[in-house]
């Protein structure tokens, strides 16, 4: 698994938010899905913004870490039955 401390921190932030959302909105699946999807978009936007700030010469490990982060988030979304198909 190729990751960076920044990507790992974003994943931990995402995971914590998903747990909090599930606890708060678990009784309302529609709201829960919307909140988790918004969290996903926010985290990935932040990760991509950081990635594109890097000079091209320093993106090697970051490219793998970004793809890994996206995969891990998709895995979590699959467990919570959350998709972009609202």
Secondary structure layout plus pairing:
Layout: H1 5-25, H2 29-53, H3 60-79
Structure overview:
Helix 1 (5-25) runs antiparallel to helix 2 (29-53) and helix 2 packs antiparallel against helix 3. Mean pLDDT is 89; it is low at 82-86. This protein is mainly α. It contains three helices and no strands.
* Number of domain modules: 1
N-to-C SSE series? HHH
**Number of helical regions:** 3
Shape: elongated
Helix content: over 70%
The low-pLDDT segments are 82-86
What is the mean pLDDT? 89
Biggest sheet descriptor: none
Give the terminus-to-terminus CA distance: 31 Å
**Structural class based on helices, strands and sheet pairing:** mainly alpha
Determine Rg (CA atoms, Å). 14 Å
Beta fraction of the residues?
under 5%
Total DSSP E strands = 0
Short description:
By secondary structure, the chain is mainly alpha-helical. It is 77% helix and 0% strand. It has helices at residues 5-25, 29-53, 60-79.
Write out key terms for the chains shown.
single chain; 86 residues; mainly alpha; 77% helix; elongated; disordered C terminus
């Amino acid at each position: 698994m190729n990751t960076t401390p920044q990507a790992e921190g974003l994943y931990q932030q995402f995971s914590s938010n998903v747990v909090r959302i599930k606890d708060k909105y678990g009784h309302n699946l529609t709201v829960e899905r919307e909140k988790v999807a918004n969290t996903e978009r926010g985290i990935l936007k932040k990760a991509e913004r950081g990635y594109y700030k890097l000079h091209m010469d320093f993106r090697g490990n970051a490219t793998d870490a970004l793809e890994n982060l996206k995969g891990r988030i998709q895995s979590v979304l699959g467990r919570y039955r959350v998709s972009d198909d609202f």
